[in-house]
Amino acid sequence: MTGRPMATPGVSAGDVLGLIRSNDVVTRADIRRLTGLSRTAVTLRVEQLLERGLVVECADGGSTGGRPPTRLMFNPGSGLVLAASTGASRAQVAVCDLAGRVLAESEFAVPSSGVTESLLVSAAERMETLLERAAGESGARRPVYGVGVSVPSAVDVATGHSVDTGPALGEVAVADYFTARFGAPVRVDSDVNALALAEHARHPDVCDLLLLKASTGIGAGIIAGGRLQRGAWGGAGEIGHIKVAGAPDRPCRCGDMHCLETVAGGWALLEQLAAQGKSVSGLPELVELVHAGDSDALRAVREAGRRIGEVLAAAVNLLNPALIIVRGDLSHAYEPLAAGMRELIYQRSSALATRALRVEPGAPDAPSGVAACAAMILDQVLAPAAVNALLDA
Known about the structure:
alpha/beta, single chain, 5-stranded mixed sheet, 14 helices
């Protein structure tokens, strides 16, 4: 282990847990050296974590002689978090351990009415079923530390309400519902923001990153200067509702006209193909047609990439990201989609902004939507202040 000692005042049990989590295993002597705490103070903090089950002892460390030092390890199995990733057409819910590993998950279709209380009820009922499955034959449930939820819309993070992008600007009290249902902290954000945070954790050296989600809808998560940018009212990244030239007079899902989604959203592509006499049941089938070399599907996806690139070119000039990561159902038809995007981005963005720009698909092992939601709530509930409040309670 390396690092400078912390100042002793204010080094709490939550801080000690952070050290143990970040270093996998650690001895009490390591904690004393890194924090400057006394032997008694270290013992007190470690005993609190052991009693709660957040840490376990393992006497398998090496030694220069005599009895080997007892090592301390974070115990991700001591509790659970729940995750719900809701999209425009389907949702996934999961039970995860405190390391964010998915233990059980379920998927269901999202009704055309979108994010409503009935959708939250469906998600919570499936979470309850997964909790019973995770308990196994013993029926002993581990404590639920928190619930992470993503929704396909802007979010007021202060209240945890989803905000409709339509003219009515209706709100759904997502956080209040899950808090009442599970009695645990809840964190709600947009689906693209949750994915952007997860991808930034995978690319910590990239301080300026755009996460594009191209699926039924289109949105962007913005990491600028190493921080997620939500905007004044949570509406940053709503690029699917930017007006584009030449869009037909077709109403968007938001109720407006001429939005990017009307020419490049997954729902619009399915409508376009249906108008050409090609019935496609959903985006996975559209992707299959692209991989099979279907000319209509290839043309539709590439043109969607051009229209997305047209909007992203302005974002590239404005934000100068180093990396654009493409996620969502349409990312599985990445080659024609990215070819169209690059064509317009490089044509319409400045040479300086695109000099070292990388456009990449999400990696095969990239976090799923529910894994991103789990990571989001774990950042909150395992923060030192939250751990200290839990131990005090």
